[in-house]
């Protein structure tokens, strides 16, 4: 369907197939257009409204809010917690500009668990207990080679060969230790996963 823009005099497409430069219409805009057509709105009104208003499922809006205000559980198991996690909170890397700086001391107030460092078999029950105490939806970032696969200590009788043997992991962050900006990248990947869960399910 084509809509005449009364201000500019050129035609703009509301289905994403219009002139070059028009962004493709997402699902929420399509839902807005469908509802406006249902009540018999004028095409010019539909074009104006879709520029400023989106109607869609509440879950999509909640996911957008969750993705931009993740509260990490502030605990570390080894050196990655100092060299990566704590450094990311300092002024040079400034994790707070993304809204992720509120480290919680209680798992009941946290959204994301960052497993930093070597998970020993003695520490494993506590990691699982903390994960179980977190409210849904909850996410896990495995930070560093030790958290992902056991790292250089993988052959030790006392080390769990990867935290994903205990709890589900959403983002793997390799490195020994990973740089603080790599942790920021992991948060942004997690944000992408939260906003677009259907894209992740396809892969």
UniProtKB/TrEMBL annotation:
GO terms for molecular function: 4 iron, 4 sulfur cluster binding; iron ion binding; NADH dehydrogenase (quinone) (non-electrogenic) activity; NADH dehydrogenase (ubiquinone) activity; quinone binding. Residues 1-26 are annotated as: Disordered. It catalyses: a quinone + NADH + 5 H(+)(in) = a quinol + NAD(+) + 4 H(+)(out). Binds 1 [4Fe-4S] cluster. It comes from the Bacteria. Its cofactor is [4Fe-4S] cluster. NDH-1 is composed of 14 different subunits. Subunits NuoB, C, D, E, F, and G constitute the peripheral sector of the complex. This is NADH-quinone oxidoreductase subunit B.
């Amino acid at each position: 369907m084509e809509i005449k823009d009364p201000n500019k005099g050129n035609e703009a497409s509301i289905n994403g197939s219009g002139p070059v430069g028009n962004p493709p219409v997402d699902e929420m805009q399509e839902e807005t257009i469908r509802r406006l057509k249902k009540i018999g709105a004028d095409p010019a009104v539909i074009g104006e409204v879709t520029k400023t208003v989106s109607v869609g499922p509440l879950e999509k809006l909640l996911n957008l809010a969750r993705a931009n205000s993740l509260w990490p559980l502030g605990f570390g198991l080894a050196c990655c917690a100092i060299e990566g996690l704590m450094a990311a909170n300092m002024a040079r890397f400034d994790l707070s500009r993304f809204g992720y700086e509120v480290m919680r001391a209680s798992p009941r107030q946290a959204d994301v668990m960052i497993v930093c460092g070597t998970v020993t078999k003695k520490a494993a029950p506590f990691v699982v207990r903390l994960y179980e105490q977190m409210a849904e939806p909850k996410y896990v970032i495995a930070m560093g080679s030790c958290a992902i696969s056991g790292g250089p200590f993988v052959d030790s009788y006392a080390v769990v060969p990867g935290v994903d043997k205990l709890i589900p992991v959403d983002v793997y962050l390799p490195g020994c230790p990973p740089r603080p900006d790599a942790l920021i990248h992991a948060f942004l990947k997690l944000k992408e996963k939260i906003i677009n869960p259907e894209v992740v399910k396809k892969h």
